[in-house]
């Protein structure tokens, strides 16, 4: 199977699988995951490194299957250099959008609440804050400014992003953009669906799921959307024509 892959796609597959296999041997997955830019654990290299760490086998399998299915075709059309640039452009863009959503939506309330209690740390405000936002235990049960700062840091370090999903969704978007009338099957339905409808359905689902963000859903839906958005932006910049339908 690997011999039928293009060189860049094969290399990306091997790196992702290899890093997943060695994560049980002290591999610093948490360090390479993408943390919120306001957190102490954030490092600039994480906007790239996060694309190569996966939390579970199914997460890895889904992403690598998408890379296997669509990546080689795009590399054959564009060449290795352009394909690799596209891959990282979509992946980095997805991570940046994800952090933007974190800053302006996910962490906005907790950031305001923390600033408020630090500006007026009376006992009532501290207790109310602990009841609503506490995620770590206060040493000796003492809820004070130092605990608030530590608790806030713990909150914004939660939910670090990992995986190649943003880049893969960019690849899927590019396939639907370039080959809109190609037919494919959406598991488990045995009915062929054109790529343009498949991509549209996938994008709308991710948008809906991201807005709803049901309890227990730890999927970074807006990172997926980010990969698709940045894919379209780059395709437009490259002045990709849509006059060929396959």
From TrEMBL:
Main location: membrane
EC number, as in UniProt: 3.4.21.-
UniProt record, GO biological process: proteolysis
Membrane topology note: Multi-pass membrane protein
Residues annotated as transmembrane: 12-28, 48-71, 83-101, 154-178, 185-204, 219-238
Enzyme class: hydrolase
GO molecular function per UniProt: peptidase activity
Full protein name: Rhomboid family intramembrane serine protease
């Amino acid at each position: 199977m690997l011999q039928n892959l293009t060189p860049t796609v094969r290399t990306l597959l091997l790196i992702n699988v290899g890093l997943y296999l060695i994560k049980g041997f002290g591999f610093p997955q948490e360090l390479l995951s993408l943390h919120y830019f306001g957190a102490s654990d954030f490092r600039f290299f994480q906007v790239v490194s996060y694309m190569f760490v996966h939390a579970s086998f199914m997460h890895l399998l889904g992403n690598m299957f998408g890379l296997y299915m669509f990546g080689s075709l795009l590399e054959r059309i564009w060449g290795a250099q352009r394909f690799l640039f596209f891959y990282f452009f979509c992946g980095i863009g997805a991570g940046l959008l994800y952090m933007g959503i974190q800053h302006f939506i996910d962490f906005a309330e907790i950031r305001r609440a923390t600033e408020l209690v630090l500006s007026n740390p009376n006992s009532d405000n501290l207790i109310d804050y602990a009841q609503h936002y506490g995620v770590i235990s206060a040493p000796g049960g003492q809820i004070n400014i130092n605990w608030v700062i530590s608790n806030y840091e713990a909150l914004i370090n939660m939910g670090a992003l990992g995986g190649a999903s943003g880049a893969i969704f960019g690849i899927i978007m590019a396939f639907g953009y370039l080959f809109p009338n190609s037919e494919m099957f959406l598991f488990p339905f045995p009915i062929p669906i054109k790529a343009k409808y498949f991509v549209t359905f996938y994008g709308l689902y991710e948008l809906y799921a991201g807005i709803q963000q049901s309890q227990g859903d730890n999927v970074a839906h807006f990172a997926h959307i980010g990969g698709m958005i940045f894919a379209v932006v780059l395709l437009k910049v490259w002045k990709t024509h849509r006059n060929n339908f396959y």
